[in-house]
Write a structure and sequence with these properties.
Blueprint (H helix, E strand, L loop, with lengths): L3 E8 L2 H6 L3 E7 L1 E3 H11 L5 H5 L3 E4 L2 E2 L9 E3 L3 E5 L6
Parallel strand pairs: 1-7
Antiparallel strand pairs: 1-2, 3-6, 4-5, 4-7
C-alpha cells in the first residue's frame, strides 16, 4: 500500500490571485498526473477563475519545466513541488 504524501503546489501572480492563496498541499498516494493535479487544485477553489488561469500557465515540476508535454502524461510523485507560473510581460 502506498504511503500518503503531498504535492506542494505554489501559485504565482494571477494564479495566486485566482486561487486566493499562495500554495496548496494536495494529498496523494504515490503519484498523480499533472492533469489530475490540475483537477484537484481546481476542486479546492470552486467558483474561482483558477481553472481558466491554469490553461495559460507554465508549470515547473521540481525545477524542470513541463513545456508542451501532455498533462495526462506528466507524472508527479508525492513529495514533489509544483510551481504554477502565469505568463509575465515586460523585460
Amino acid at each position: 500500500m502506498a504511503e500518503t504524501n503531498v504535492i506542494r503546489v505554489r501559485y504565482w501572480a494571477a494564479a495566486k490571485a485566482a486561487a486566493g492563496t499562495d500554495a496548496d498541499d494536495v494529498p496523494v498516494n504515490g503519484s498523480m498526473t499533472l492533469a489530475e493535479l490540475r483537477r484537484a487544485v481546481t476542486a479546492l477553489h470552486p467558483d474561482t477563475r483558477l481553472a481558466e488561469v491554469l490553461t495559460a500557465c507554465s508549470t515547473l515540476v521540481g525545477e524542470q519545466p513541463v513545456g508542451t508535454a501532455d498533462p495526462e502524461q506528466v507524472v508527479i510523485e508525492g513529495g514533489s513541488s509544483v510551481e504554477i507560473l502565469p505568463p509575465f510581460a515586460g523585460g
